Amino acid sequence: MKTQTYLIYALYAALAMPLVSCHNKGNAERDTTMRKIDVAVATTDSVILHKTYPGYLKSKNSAKVVGRVDGRLLSVNYNSGEYVTKGTVLFRIDPTLYQDAVARAEAALASAISARDYAKSHYAAVNKALEANAVSKMEVLSAESAYNQAVANIKDCEAALHTARTNLGYCTVTAPISGFTTDCMMSAGNYVNGSGAPVELATIYDISTFNAVFQIEDAQYERLVGRDGGMGAPVYRQIPLSFTDSMTHSYTADLYYESPSVNQSTGTIELKGTVNNIDNELKDGMYVTVSLPYGRKSDAILVKDASIGTDQLGKYLYVVNDSNKVVYTPVEVGDIYQDSLRVITKGLRAGDKYVTKALLTVRNGEEISPVIVK
């Protein structure tokens, strides 16, 4: 009996050995076929929340160059679009009429001075004659009146000469500020009729600094001013800006102005922030998106921004579950954080693992061998 029992155990052992061997071999083959994929763990941090608003850039300092006299435009002394300094001669208008006006005004003033000198001498003479009773008191008063009138006439002539010289000066049109010029609206040879109303010839823009102009809802404004420090808080000194196309440099706005009234038709308040123009990259009138801070979230979920995919349904991540299987997971995103991280507002929990690379080749439901990266 014992011999038969040993034989039965030996037979079972012999049959079991190939099965165990095959099972181990299957596990080994599966391990070698699973791809190693880099994954990261969703983290949390305290971040400042932003709300975006459309706006535009407006030069803080610009000036129209105008013709204020009548005459033919003799010359245009600048190239369109170039930088000019304050006082640079930009246009010359035919000064002939105004040179003649100055000459007439100078002659009138000289005549008035001569008349005053004569009236002064005559007044002194009749005063002396009055002492000898050679003239009447009425003659003295008449001489005094003539002298005072001559003095007043000089002031009129001086004012006329000043006006004539001013108009002559307008024949040479100079840059009122330093900046970049627009194209000339009139070419040499055209007639400028600027005495009735100034004629715009060009515009100069000082583009060293801009205003980022935008509007926010009055309810949002109330929340902002309720924060510590209100609009004067340090967080409003560097408000992030973005543009339709990526720019060479990064830009921020220093908020300095808030409208004293609410626009009743839109229910918004206008805000302005100063923007420094680096390398003259920005232009007047450019559209800009303003990321206005409005609060702080102490436990915001963060992932690598490059790990987020986009399809017809929106944003998504490939999350790796506890079985190391890839799960297509739609998410909602918030602001960028520290240049490379993105806030996830919905669809992910802190500690979840997600694929960071191979987004184009990984498949939903695929079992992988995750490699944790930071």
From TrEMBL:
It comes from the Bacteria. This is Efflux RND transporter periplasmic adaptor subunit.
